[in-house]
Amino acid sequence: MAELVFYAGTMDCGKSTLALQTDHNHSSRGRAGIVFTRLDRAGESMLSSRLGLAVPAIEVGDDFDFR
Fold first, then answer.
1. What is the SS3 string spanning 9-67?
2. What's the CA gap between 5 and 7, in Å, rounded?
3. In this predicted model, what pLDDT tens digit does every residue of 6-59 receive, in sequence order?
4. Cβ atoms of 1 and 31 closer than 8 Å
5. How far apart are CA 56 and CA 34, in angstroms?
6. How far is it, in rounded angstroms, from Cα 63 to Cα 56?
7. Residue 66 has what pLDDT?
8. What are the domain boundaries of the chain?
9. Buried-exposed string 46-57: b where 16+ CB fall within 10 A, e elsewhere
10. Which is it for strands 54-56 and 46-48: parallel, antiparallel or unpaired?
11. What pTM does this model have?
């Protein structure tokens, strides 16, 4: 069954790193996922962490509808 997970917290608490880790863990087991982001430091349509890791993502704007 599909699952939508949001990571929220203060700056520099590891939200992006946790999302990247979760994506990697699922991918390594053959489970496809979709990563969403907004205003990431790496530029549009990327999710990155301060560790230098990055994956392609779907950029979410104010008018984005998850349905």
1. CCCCCCHHHHHHHHHHHHHHCCCCCCCEECCCCCCCCEEECCCCCEEECEECCCCCCCC
2. 7
3. 899 999 999 999 999 999 999 999 998 999 998 888 888 999 999 989 999 999
4. no
5. 9
6. 20
7. 86
8. 34-67
9. ebbbeeeebbeb
10. antiparallel
11. 0.81
